[in-house]
Design a protein that fits this description.
The chain is 57% helix and 9% strand. By secondary structure, the chain is mainly alpha-helical. The longest helix is centred in the first third of the chain and has 28 residues.
Length: 117
């Protein structure tokens, strides 16, 4: 994969000298593509059993940062609707650990379902 980075680096260096603004636009498009590819790669890695720590290490960020950026938002275990992690929302998110070092199992209930129970 290093050859892709080297080739891209050389191409962008040449392009910048000819058209700096055009190169900026291209780099912005590439950044969007890279972000999309990273999301897909994280989804696949998680499906294959990679922990947030391993994914964070691959991205050179903490496991917490990887989780915050790429984890699916919690949904209500009763109605399937969105659940807010904001403390004043009335929603409830509970993380439980089966054993030390395990990935958390998240159960969430929205404020509407909590009020109905």
């Amino acid at each position: 994969m290093t050859y892709i980075i080297e080739a891209t680096h050389k191409s962008l260096d040449k392009a910048m000298e000819k058209d700096a603004l055009g190169t900026l636009r291209t780099m912005n498009e590439l950044k969007s593509l890279i972000d999309t590819w990273a999301e897909k790669a994280v989804t696949i890695a998680r499906r294959e059993g990679a922990s947030w720590a391993v994914i964070g290490d691959a991205l050179n960020i903490t496991k917490q940062a990887a989780h915050q950026r790429y984890a699916e938002p919690p949904v209500c275990s009763v109605c399937g609707g969105p659940v807010s992690s904001m403390s004043n929302s009335g929603d409830s998110i509970v993380r439980s650990y089966a054993y030390f070092g395990a990935e958390p199992v998240v159960t969430a209930t929205c404020a509407t379902c909590r009020a109905a129970s």
